[in-house]
Amino acid sequence: MARLMLQDEAQTQVLCLDLVLPIRQFTIPGSIVVVPIFVVRWAHVLAAGMDGAMAVLATMERNTKMSNIPTEVDEIELFVALLKENAKRLDSQFVASAEKHSHLLSVSFFTSISEEMQTEFYDSLSSYCFKCGTTGVTTQKCARCSVASYCSRQCQKAHWKYHKHNQCTPPAVSQS
To answer: Which residues pair with 48 in a beta bridge?
Structure first.
């Protein structure tokens, strides 16, 4: 068993994930793509509920390895929304058999998607904010790379630290 904790820098909230089952895989029908599925028990705890956080820590089994990953609050909230939505797709009998400490931990799953699938998904959207993912609003492109788009100046500023090092490449200037 391993526990992964996603926590924001200010430590206002934490998302704890315990891997329930070994990684499962499924093949997308009509494709050669094999996708891993991670079944987890999870809890989302706000700093205001430290009693809840202590209770979640008490659910750890002996010899549990624990990793702490610093993250942003909006990333935690997005992951929580994904886990809640995915939980609706699980068979209730499976959930009942996988639940342990059901008053504290919920059961769900997540899966990774390839960069190609992400690009295809986002390309299918006319425009979206690279920071918050908002769609259906007017966005402005990054003046440097003209690729990333943002719904507001606040989102662009908040995303700049990541964007400038990982995505922002100015267009090549032709030398003639």
So the answer is: none
Tokens 């028990």 belong to which residue? 41
Which comes out higher in pLDDT, residue 21 or 141?
141
Beta bridge partners of 8: 71
Q: How far apart are CA 144 and CA 141, in angstroms?
A: 9
Q: Please give the structure tokens belonging to residue 107.
A: 């059961």
Six-digit token pair at 157?
């500023």
* Count of helix runs (H) and strand runs (E) in the chain: 5, 8
As given in the structure block, the two tokens for residue 131 are 């920071």
pLDDT in tens, 112-130: 766 666 666 666 666 778 8
CA angle at 68 for the pair 66 and 74, rounded to the nearest 5°: 135
Structure tokens at 34: 């094999």
Q: What is the pTM of this model?
A: 0.54
Nearest to 130 by CA among 37, 121, 73, 139: 139
Strands 149-150 and 140-141: what pairing?
A: antiparallel
